[in-house]
Amino acid sequence: IKTKYEKRRQQSSRLEEENHKFFTNERINLDSSSIIFNSWDKKKNIKFPKEMTPELAEEIGVHLGDGCLSFNKKYFSVKTNKIEESYMFGFLFPLYKKLYNLDLKLMGLESVVGFEVYSKAFFDFKNKILQIPYGEKVHRIEVPKVVLDSRNKDVYRAFIRGIFDTDGCVYMPPSKRKYSVITFTIKSEKLIKQMKDMLIKLGFIPYVGRWVINLNGPLML
Description:
Layout: H1 4-18, H2 39-44, H3 54-66, E1 67-70, E2 75-81, H4 85-100, E3 107-108, E4 112-118, H5 120-129, H6 145-148, H7 153-167, E5 168-171, E6 181-185, H8 189-201, E7 207-208, E8 212-216
Antiparallel strand pairs: 1-2, 2-4, 3-4, 5-6, 6-8, 7-8
Helix pairs in contact: 3-7
């Protein structure tokens, strides 16, 4: 008799095998030649990625989770809980330096830490090239086309990891010892639907609620 774990393992393997041909590793070029750099952008020597990479995909996931893009101020920020200050210094700051040549400074507020970037060129790259909407994110955010069109496992994984970095957690329900739950909380039905499809293509078995995606049990962990 097959155990529940074995059945789920076979289901996961079957999903991954069924979607094997989907991942064709398309090269997604990012043409930023139309972006105009102002004097501040030139002084800071900002640069932009020329193609989609796992690092850029993870940064996009972080943006959709904890980022803010303002049209009026040509402003971008990422703010997160104070307990994640080491994550800011140890991971995000080096990532933004590598991707955009940005030297960031930590902004400490009463309950959050983060950083701010005022740059029209950076705003235009985010909005026009990556097609990330500005303003209110609730119910509006979705997986950018440049991520989806890559059909690249590493890019998909990195994007999901970026969402998890900001809107995910792992916990163990008190009623179930040694039973882990990975959960994403996202207020966008379209993004949830797209992430569900991405996870399935990667061989995961997601449970989807109205605003959550859960990956349940030790196999999914």
